[in-house]
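Section 3.1: Structural characterization of target chains.
Under the original work plan, the team committed to producing a structural model for every single-chain target entering the pipeline before any wet-lab resources were allocated. The record below documents one such target. The sequence was received from the expression subgroup and is listed exactly as submitted; it comprises 99 residues.
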Amino acid sequence: MRNPMTRDLAFDWLLSHYDGFVKHMGIFAALLSVPQMPSSFCSMKRADQIESALLPRVRAANRGELAFQRTLERVRNCSALKSAKGAEISAAVKQAALQ
C-alpha cells in the first residue's frame, strides 16, 4: 500500500481477504503489520473508509487497535497538513527543483 499506483488495489484486496490474510500472517504480524498497512493514505474521506471497513475487524480480533488508531491519526494528520500547507509545500519543492 505504500506505492501510490497500487494503493487502492492493495487496500481493496486486503478488505476482500482480511480474515485469511490475518490468519496466515499470524498473531504478531496481525498486531503489528496489518493495522498499519493503510497508513500511506492521505485523505479524510479515505480515513473514514478505512475506519468503517477495518475497525470492526480489528476490534473483533481483539488485537492491534492502538496501532490501528495511530494509523487513522496519521492518515487524518496527513490530510490536514495537505489541506493547510499543500500549495505552499508544492511551490517550495517546485522552486527548489528550478535552482
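The chain has a mean pLDDT of 90.
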